[in-house]
Design a protein that fits this description.
elongated, alpha+beta, Flavocytochrome C3, Chain A, domain 1, two-stranded antiparallel ribbon
């Protein structure tokens, strides 16, 4: 959505325009002081070291929101889906008969989704990938015999 001011943008997005204008004023104050009190953007020294031309107190991670038009989008929880391969609790890929294929693992978006619910952006799939990646490696390390390429 696009509007010439925060209040008009708020109306288009279905949020309180006065609150949106107040939030933008607060953020612009952070830009002027160089300190983001809400999310602490730009506080890591290595991020600030990139631009040596900045005047003291400026923060390259912040920029004023003061020139129209203003833009906004609605963010909503997203339910991810996957057409990946079926896996077991160890992230082993399952044969069509339901038996694990020895030595073949799948995680993340390559594996069929097993968790339910909603998450913002990629958080749900990243957490799943990390969890099942750990479980897959743990299973590999605990394997009692070497895997034969003939199986």
């Amino acid at each position: 959505m696009q509007a010439e001011g925060p209040r008009a943008l708020g109306a288009k997005l279905g949020v309180n325009g006065d609150s949106l204008a107040a939030t933008i004023r607060r953020f612009n104050d952070f830009c002027r002081t160089g300190a983001d009190k809400d999310f602490r953007r730009g506080e890591l020294a290595w991020r600030l070291a990139q631009d040596r031309t900045l005047v003291s107190g400026q923060n390259p991670s912040l920029g004023l929101l003061d020139k129209p038009p203003f833009y906004g989008i609605e963010l909503a929880p997203a339910g991810g889906s996957s057409a990946g391969v079926l896996t077991d609790e160890n992230a082993q890929v399952l044969h069509s008969r339901g038996k694990p294929l020895l030595g073949l693992y799948a995680i993340g978006n390559a594996a069929a989704k097993v968790e339910f619910g909603a998450g913002y952006q990629a958080g749900l799939t990243l957490a799943s990938g990390m969890t099942f990646g750990y479980l897959a490696v743990d299973h590999m390390l605990k394997a009692s015999k070497p895997i034969s390429r003939d199986t």
